[in-house]
């Protein structure tokens, strides 16, 4: 879905920016130009950033908790 109509930015593009290294809303805004015109999209853009960063952190935490195997 389109998040920022002024810049034509979708939620998928925001997620991709985070997967490619953006670590904050500020980074996403600088990279994609979200909320740089009228600003009406800022709340939704921040929500997408928060949700995506939360998912990324959860998946990284799951990777750090590896199962220990004991040879029988």
UniProtKB/TrEMBL annotation:
Annotated InterPro entries: BFD-associated_ferredoxin (IPR052371), BFD-like_2Fe2S-bd_dom (IPR007419), BFD-like_2Fe2S-bd_dom_sf (IPR041854)
Signal peptide stretch: none
Gene3D superfamilies from the UniProt entry: BFD-like [2Fe-2S]-binding domain (1.10.10.1100)
Key words, A-Z: 2Fe-2S, Electron transport, Iron, Iron-sulfur, Metal-binding, Transport
Annotated Pfam families: Fer2_BFD (PF04324)
Protein's UniProt keywords contain Zinc-finger: no
GO molecular function, one term: metal ion binding
Cofactor (UniProt): [2Fe-2S] cluster
Domain BFD-like [2Fe-2S]-binding per the UniProt entry, residue ranges: 2-49
Domain of life of the source: Bacteria
Keyword Nucleus: no
PANTHER family: BACTERIOFERRITIN-ASSOCIATED FERREDOXIN
Family: Belongs to the Bfd family.
Protein name in UniProt: Bacterioferritin-associated ferredoxin
